[in-house]
Amino acid sequence: MILRNGTTASIRVAQSSDEAAMAQFFASLSKESRQHRFFSQALPDDKLVGSFCDAGDPRRQSTLIVTQLSGAVETIIAVGTYMARDTTTAEIGLAVADACQGKGIGTLMLERLALFAASNGIRHFWAMTMFENQQMLDVFRESGFDCRTKTEQGVVEIDLSLVPSAASVAHGELCDRVATAASLRPFFHPNAVAIVGASRNSANIGTRLLQAAIDAGFQGTLYPINPKTAAIGSLRAYPSVRDLPEAPDLTVIVVPRDAVLEVVDDCAARGVRAVIVITAGFAEIGAAGRELQRQLVTKVRGHGMRMIGPNCLGLLSTDPTVRLNASFAPDFPPPGRIAFSSQSGALGLAIISLARRRGLGLSKFVSVGNKADVSGNDLLQYWEQDGQTDVILLYLESFGNPRRFARIASRVSRHKPIVAVKAGRTGAGKRAASSHTAALAASDVAVDALFHQTGVIRAESIDEMFDLAAALSAQPLPNGRRVAILTNAGGLGILCADTCEANDLLVQELSEATKIYLQEFLPAAASVMNPIDMIASASAENFAKATEILLCDHQVDALIVLTIDVGLADISTIGRGIAAGVSVARAKSGAGKPVLTCIMDGDTLSAASALNGERLPNYDFPENAARVLGKLASYAEWRRRPLGVIPDFDDIQPETARALCQSIVKERGTVWLEAIEVRKVLQDFALPMPPFEICRSADAAARAAQQIGFPVALKLASRQIVHKTEFGGVQLNLQNETAVRAAFAAIHGRLAGANRLEAFDGVLVQPMIGGGVELMVGITQDPSFGPLIAFGLGGIHVEILQDVCFRVTPITDRDANEMVRAIHGYRLLEGYRGHPPADIPAIEDLLLRLARLVEEIPEITELDLNPVIVRPPGQGCCIVDARIRVASIQ
To answer: Are strands 124-130 and 155-161 parallel, antiparallel or unpaired?
Structure first.
């Protein structure tokens, strides 16, 4: 956990082995602090302390302890306990060491206790404290949870609702954001930097890092650490960090792996706040390395420090007041407003060189290595508040905490664009699937869904990432999708227009007034139909005037200017003409519209610069510019759309459904639920299902059909067989008892012939559901991202057509609205060729309830509703067939 002052501490569940340390903690409290915690200055007895350390039943009680290292000894600095008063309410008590009060520990401990208690069925915290204990009262009142208090005779009774609210979520995010940013500041604004491992050998890695810092012109003090020499170059060397004349904010560690932990202890002893561990040989090499990395992280956090790495290539900051190069970057990039985080160190350094060649400046660069402590999520929160960063670039190979990424990225993307390249998008990692939904959820589906929901712009390659960064760092976002294309070569215009339309941009005809303005100075052979082809003889003046006119057209949202050197005009002069036209238009009505260029002059990395310091990003080919503009338009639309909400439902019973699933997992392990159990779970979330009966004989099926009313459907009931139609397990439109008996015999006989009678749990008899459109809705658990919800056309064709939209749960009402409209089959739902439209609000309601179901019951690993019949507006929808698979939570 990150404290308010930017230092760190560890938090964990108390165990029986902590009894002595906990007793010592309570003994170390001042009499006043003990009075506030226990209403007595006396020490708690051994029995009470022992109960605090009992971790056997978290539904009954649990205790969290916060620790820091004092030398090599783990010391408790805070204790928080809840004890159940009934099945949904628990009494809570918090105590923080006197010397550590005021650092936000109580607030963080309350948040963690609330999360832990809520996961074990607790919905309310109850507490009593003295009126004069205002510091603890502030912790409760400012927590963001719904807090109600009652004061009587100097004692305050507190009732805290643990049900998440907008206020509690916002408060938690704010505290996390502020603390994280404070903890990372020593990396980017250090007063001094120590480099442990530098030597007189110029080929030494530590020496190369030291020289890189010197060459960049670091504005603070550099301290080389080497016990075997008194000086390195012109700098005095010190035998240990402990021997430094001041405490450096940052230490870079480049020593053999087995010496790293000792150096970390030295850093802690001297008051270092941040370390970069360049050394490799940790989690990336296997089990032994993972264990050593675990020890390293425990030590770093226990000492209250932050760490980048291990196994990383460092960081740099181009801030003129810092100018820090603590990396292997061979050249220091020009300052700019783009921050970049890379999970691949070597690739990151290559990208820095590419940025320089493209003329793109960076504000910060970080190679995160193994992400053992500081992660990409932490950097996002720091750069969110960094006044020198406007655009954030990420090269990702994995997600450590996708849900935290989603929360942070969706907030940051609202005002700073995030561009990400995610490696590993092929189907090689696709896992074996046992349901429709799992079969459709390929390995990269979750990444696309996550990025879409959070506004992250996905780049298909490193090249496209820099194409996007060039536009985002220099041009405004478009207010719409209408684009004008200006060129001196018809072929370029056609290529660009085709790519624009493929990326959902509108290359529509210009207004009559704009066409007239263009015709006044263009030759008769020119085309003004959009793309505007000024023909090969177009001059710099033609480009300037046409650019001005098009940008000032109220029916144009963006402009792409294409030109190729045909030997009739100086290409650099044309570039200046385009820039001049942009500058004039900006002073009129052409502000706020992006301009992208493709000046094909052989220097594909150049860029035209407009007057007044504006930069016009230049692209290798027309298609590149069109693809970039398409993604900018989609991102701009995402930013403009209102925030969605996760609705609550007052007609659901999640506790009942959760208890059922948990008991089934406990008794039977990983299984598909029986049909009656599926129905119970869905009913607890008010999901619509027709009446049905499970029958194991033809006579029982005939009686059930008679009671339900003909026509009926018979379906195989089986926890083992997923695709019923492969065994003739779906018999429809049965009009009488004779047909029902024959259908039962056919299903039973087919299984007997295939030697699969052990899979026969009976048949499900239900009324025929006529009319409407068949849909499929499902859930599958992604091992990294958690539950994915799928929506598409249903029936037997779902896996063939694969017209399915995925989202990562939880989803908002906006997500549900988008999902319904994202599939190609949406035209059927709108009403097509005489077919009546569907009840869209009912579909959205079903999606939201299903997402809530899987969030409330994490034991559900797969769920298929197929088909779901959606009826005309106002008539709702009906789940015709459903399967649910449950497993223990890992």
So the answer is: antiparallel
CA distances from 509 to 217, 522, 555, 578 (A): 54, 17, 10, 22
Checking DSSP bridges between strand 418-422 and strand 391-396, what pairing results, if any? parallel
3-class secondary-structure state, position 721: coil
Q: What's residue 702's pLDDT? A: 94
pLDDT at 786: 87
CB 302 within 8 A of CB 10: yes
Q: Is the pTM of this model over 0.90?
A: no
Instruction: Say which amino acid occupies 509.
Output: E
Residue pLDDT, tens place only, 788-836: 999 998 865 566 667 889 999 999 999 999 999 999 889 889 887 767 8
DSSP state letters, 471-540: HHTTSPPPSSSBEEEEES-HHHHHHHHHHHHHTT-B-PPPPHHHHHHHHTTS-TT-B-SSSEE--TT--H
The Cα angle at residue 384 between residues 378 and 389, in degrees rounded to 5: 115
Q: Do the strands 362-367 and 391-396 form a parallel or antiparallel pair, or are they unpaired?
A: unpaired
Q: Name the DSSP class of 571.
A: H
Helix, strand or coil, per DSSP, at residue 368: coil
For residues 265 and 275, give the distance between their C-alpha atoms in angstroms, rounded to a whole number.
11
The count of other CB atoms within 10 Å of the CB of residue 666 is 10
* Average predicted confidence (pLDDT) for the chain: 89
Q: H or E stretch including 349?
A: helix 345-357
Average pLDDT over residues 73-78: 91
870, pLDDT greater than 80: yes
Tell me if residue 805 falls in helix, strand or coil: strand
Contact in structure between 852 and 652 (CB atoms under 8 Å): yes
DSSP per-residue codes, 733-746: EE-SHHHHHHHHHH
Using CA atoms, how far apart are residues 783 and 671, in angstroms rounded to an integer?
Answer: 18
Would you say 16 and 53 are in contact if contact means Cβ atoms under 8 Å apart? yes
Distance CA(220)–CA(192), nearest Å, equals 5
Minimum mean pLDDT range among 144-153, 452-461, 483-492: 144-153
Strands 877-879, 615-616: pairing is unpaired
Tens-place pLDDT, residues 610-666: 566 788 999 999 999 999 999 999 999 999 998 888 888 999 999 899 999 999 999
Contact status, residue 59 vs residue 84, Cβ threshold 8 Å: yes
Q: What is the tens place of the pLDDT at every residue in 351-361?
A: 888 888 888 89
Which tokens go with 67? 């620790």
Give backbone dihedrals phi and psi of 147, rounded to 5 degrees, phi first: -115, 125
* CB crowding 545-572: b at 16 or more within 10 Å, else e: bbbbbbbbbeebbbbbbbbbbeeebebe
